[in-house]
Amino acid sequence: MAARTLKLVDTAADQRRPVIEMRGVSKTYRTRDGDVPSLKPIDFTVAEGEFVVIVGPSGCGKTTLLKMLAGLLQPSDGEVVVEGKAITKPHRDVGIVFQTALLLPWRNVLSNVMMPVEVKGLPRAEYEQRALDLLKMTGLEGFERKYPWQLSGGMQQRVSICRALVHDPKIVLMDEPFGALDAMTREKMNVELQRIQRETGKTVLLITHSIPEAVFLADRVMVMSARPGAIAAVYEIPMPRPRTLDVLADPRFVEMTQKIRAHFSDAHID
Length: 270
What we know:
270 residues; alpha/beta; Rossmann fold; seven-stranded mixed beta sheet; four-stranded antiparallel beta sheet; 9 helices; 26% strand; globular; disordered N terminus
């Protein structure tokens, strides 16, 4: 089925200050075999404190989009704006969480969390207390001196989330953060992430292949089409927060996942 274009306006988000803006952003990779279009021109805005989830088939340019927001990759055309400033290089206003925790095995939990503080040359005494507070908030108090191999997969991802938040970024970018976890741990981490975002008030942009995960977490879900990727639809999620796993049986949840799934046929997506 061809992706249908649909825009549902999120009036609550529209009233908040825009933090992320993509203005006519496209990306084409140049290779020896010729140009490879990755993203068609994309326009969207994410408001302060909003939780937006991007869902789409493999290879549609989701990760490319996140890299441009982080300043790790430059667009071929258009402009990426964060906090009113055009992004041309890596910047401090983002924290990034990857699919795997990527913790350094020779560093303990606290030392792993403090890595961005060291890299950015921030005052250690001030940010170490923030790191300890984050570990406490995520249920890792008492594990500060443990090493990655002593933690479960879910606990390692909690450490990576703390690491992304320790320098107090305005935006958290998450690329399939729970894709490597088993189903039960993934559900628990979705509940945990929702709580962390609510308590910190961070603006979050998360990528996933899982439609149920997208609907559970998001204020809005952006649906991307196959490569070269474009925004095919934007759905506002009408269910109130906080959400528990009971919402998975809510008729509104089921209806929304079915609407989003209808955009995909043979595409690789859950």
